[in-house]
Every structure is written in structure tokens, then in C-alpha cells.
Amino acid sequence: MDRIIEFKGMDLQGYWRSGNLAIVPKAYNHVSAGSYISNSSGAPFAYHVRPETVVQFSGLVDRVGAKLYESDKGIYNHKPVLIIFYDGGFYMVTDDDDQQGVDHLNSHTAYTFLKTGNIHDKKKAVHDGKE
């Protein structure tokens, strides 16, 4: 099974946008330098997003069907955890600096995971109902 490559990022108005990621290193014609997430219409229509909020989709959903991205927070085995992307894979790490608190994110662990938010939500995100 192929993994869906998808990113999401918060646009300049505080809305989460998901799709393909394009990074424009310097201004060109009428496009400003920055990070962009394509919308459903595709290029050249895209949302300018805050680069520090851009995260990658893991290809998995939690136990209620919410898509899981890196930097998502949630509950796993009754502990608060954070999803990270490291060395080519997605992992869950606990917030308590417990060396034993790392687990690989896969279809089995995702099934018992409950997403509670994202570390970037504190930036006044407005959810568009797609996450």
C-alpha cells in the first residue's frame, strides 16, 4: 500500500490548509517567497502558510478517524504523547522525558491513539472542518 504524501500548514489568517507543499525560495513575478500549500484547484492556486507550522501526514488515522500528522498531540496508553518524524519514520514520544516512552506509529498503535490537538494550535488556529 502506498502512503499518501500530504502536508498541512496554517495560513496567514490562522486556518489549517492541507495538500501538496511548495517552497518558493525567492519572489518570482507576482508570487512572494515562502511556503505554500496547494488548494483543491491545484497550481497556481495555493495558500501562503507559516513555514514553522508545516507538518507531514503520517498516512494513518486515529481511533475516531482523524488524520495524524507530525506535531500532533494525543493520548496513547493513558499517557500524553507527541507524534514526531525522525529518521524516516513517525514515532510517539511521551512528554515526561521517559526513555522508555517512545513507540513507533503504525496502524496498530494509531488505532488506539486519540488525537487531542497539535503543538501549533496555540497560534490561534481556526479549523476548517477538514481535520
Descriptive overview:
The chain has 131 residues and is mainly beta. The chain folds into 2 domains: 7-53, no CATH class; 58-121, Roll (SH3 type barrels), CATH 2.30.30. It has 1 helix and 12 strands, in the order E-E-E-E-E-E-E-E-E-E-E-H-E. The strands form 3 sheets. A 5-stranded antiparallel β-sheet has the order 11-10-9-8-12. It has a 4-stranded antiparallel β-sheet with strand order 2-1-6-7. Strands 3-4-5 form a 3-stranded antiparallel β-sheet, with no helix packed on it. It is elongated and about 50 Å long. The two termini are 22 Å apart.
In CATH, the architecture of the largest domain is Roll
The count of β-strands is 12
Residues in β-strands, percent = 35-45%
Low-confidence stretches: 125-131
CATH topology of the largest domain: SH3 type barrels
CATH class (first level) name of the largest domain: Mainly Beta
How many domains is the backbone divided into? 2
Q: Major sheet: size, sense and barrel closure?
A: 5 strands, antiparallel
Percent helix: under 10%
Average pLDDT across residues? 85
| CATH H-tier superfamily of the largest domain | YopX-like domains
